[in-house]
Design goal:
The structure holds two protein chains of two kinds. Chain A is an all-alpha fold. Chain A has six helices and no strands. The longest helix of chain A has 15 residues, at 85-99. Chain A is elongated and about 65 Å long. Chain B is mainly α. Chain B has one domain (1-111). Chain B is built from three helices and no strands. Chain B has helices spanning 6-34, 38-54, 61-77. Classes of the chains: A mainly alpha, B mainly alpha. The A-B interface holds A 85-86, 88-90, 92-93, 100-102, 105, 108-109, 126 and B 17-18, 20-22, 24-26, 28-29, 32, 45, 49, 52, 85-86, 88-89, 92. Chain A: Pathway: Lipid metabolism; fatty acid biosynthesis. Chain A: This is Acyl carrier protein. Chain A: Residues 50-125 form the Carrier domain.
Chain lengths: 128, 117
């Protein structure tokens, strides 16, 4: 009984307090140390533009037909990276899976470059 | 026949390309619905891509139209009956579940305190 209490005390995870206005400072450090921050409502976790850009770039870099050294936030999928329109569709699907989005077909046709993708995802209210 | 007016020809080809892209997108999502495990999905996605690549070099717009119609018929035949839709999207489980309340309405959290207290 005392052993159990000692163990539980040893394994206690520190609780993060979140200010009601916005996110805790240095969220990336917090994420690496304590796991993901828990928000009390589902509308507090608007992603910052750097987060979106980092994740979009990592998705594009891990695409097998893409050379990772050429990927910058301004790159155009078809003209700079030498991809196909079908590859564009595949990248978009990977981005949808990464950010748990559902992009309508007409909008998805127009997203042609990293810059457009980052803008669209950043402005989407349900990106996570 | 369509080679004379190149603007109309280019417009027709562009419309066909858009149809092909939308068809490929829907077919890929459908493949993910059927093959949930990633290793199976990657194989099936490669097969789907190979089927699209076979018809890559076709130039005649009528043949392309026929191929697109065939492809859409095949897609309709293989559609999953219970596709995965993101919950907040139309058709998902959370769609219009809790609409935002109208403006100017406030909830007063007095936890049931009566006026006499």
């Amino acid at each position: 009984m005392a052993l159990r209490a000692a163990l539980i005390r040893h394994l206690r995870v520190p609780v993060q307090t979140v200010s009601p206005a916005g996110r805790v400072s240095q969220p990336s450090v917090a994420n690496s140390l304590f796991g993901s921050i828990r928000f009390m409502s589902s509308h507090d976790d608007h992603l910052s533009k750097e987060d979106v850009a980092d994740r979009v770039l990592s998705v594009v870099k891990s695409f097998p037909k893409v050379d990772p050294s050429k990927v910058t936030p301004d790159v155009h999928f078809q003209s700079d990276l030498g991809l196909d329109s079908l590859d564009n569709v595949e990248i978009l699907m990977a981005l949808e899976e990464e950010f748990k989005l559902e992009i309508p077909d007409k909008e998805a046709d127009k997203i042609d470059s990293c810059k457009l993708a980052i803008e669209y995802i950043h402005n989407h209210p349900m990106a996570s | 026949m369509s080679l004379a007016s190149t603007a109309a020809y280019a417009a027709r080809r562009a419309a066909q390309r858009e149809r092909v892209r939308i068809l490929y997108r829907r077919a890929l999502k459908d493949t993910l619905n059927w093959a949930v495990h990633r290793h199976l999905f990657y194989e099936d996605a490669d097969n789907l891509r190979a089927r699209f690549e076979v018809n890559r070099g076709v130039e005649d717009p009528d043949t392309i139209d026929r191929l697109i119609v065939d492809g859409e018929a095949q897609y309709n035949k293989w559609r999953h009956p219970d596709p995965y839709i993101v919950p907040w999207a139309p058709g998902g489980s959370k769609f219009t579940r809790n609409p935002t309340p109208p403006e100017g309405i406030e909830i007063i959290y007095n936890y049931g305190r009566e006026d006499n207290d």
